Amino acid sequence: MLLKSIIGTSETDGDLLSSIVVQLNKQDRTGHDYDIIRHRLPISDPAILNKLISNFSSLMTKAGVRIQFPGSMNVLVPSDGIYKIHGGKLRSIAHTQRYVENDLIPNNEEIAELQELQELQREQKPLKGLHEITIGASYFVRITNNHFNSDNPLLSTVLAGKSIKVDDLSTYYQLRDLLKGTTYTLVEDVITGRDLAPYNCTFNTNKGMYMLWDLDSIKHIHMLENNPEEVLNIYSTYTDEEIVREFHINPEYLDRTDIKSFTESFKKLINRRKQIELNSIGSGNNNSVFIDGQKVFIDKSTLKVSPYELIAPKNYKTTFGL
Known about the structure:
Strand content: 15-25%
Structural class: alpha+beta
Number of domains: 3
Number of strands: 13
Shape: extended
Order of helices and strands: HHHHEEEEEHEHEHEEEHHHHEEE
Strand order of the largest sheet: 10-9-12-11
Helix content: 25-40%
Radius of gyration: 31 Å
Largest sheet: 4 strands, antiparallel
Oligomer: single chain
């Protein structure tokens, strides 16, 4: 190891150790045993000692690495149904039964874990509001009055007492529409589990608590990506005043030459609006955004950011316990 530390030293560093490396290389290109070199190497010299300890430590760490399974050190984001998170605990999805010699028997370990999750479910407290919803999680919804939209596609699931998985923004916006103007209770279904959450942030305003997905600009971008035919409706029927009122963009910059030109300019202005609002939430001087068609003002001291949730595979360990 000591000799490898020396070999790894550049001959052009200009220090004492480099000079010794130059001399050793001139004498013998095949390497040296420690017994031969130790009489020529002043290890106690601080310049030598500091350099050797650094190189030696690096080599020892690399030598101790043992590959657990083939793969890169890249971060992995699992697909839906492979991994779930329960109450902050990462858990692999498995069945409560397993096959042993073609016979289906109870998987006691999984049953015990399921019972643990059921206990965790009973301890769950209701969410304070829609702003605490996590995309990728499932929720039990209880509406205590009848002021809901009867045409909402989620209503039958709610009335059946089943949990709703908010697996994308479309479902979140449907749930938001269903609960608008109602008195409701939201409790996470931890037994079903949840997927890894995307980036999000919550903040308080003069109109209440909201999160990133509540911004009008985010909803408009989602609409453009999932309902591109809606642009044709805007192009054909919306006046400039209606565009300003609903999308908060300057219609003077819309190219109405044809539908293709209009779509490109419209998307560009909507994305620009999104950047302005994200800047308002973050470090920008402005503190206003549009939510549900109204300008609201953010209290930036209440901003809470939730980063992307990722899984880094444990594909190595060292003999030193690192």
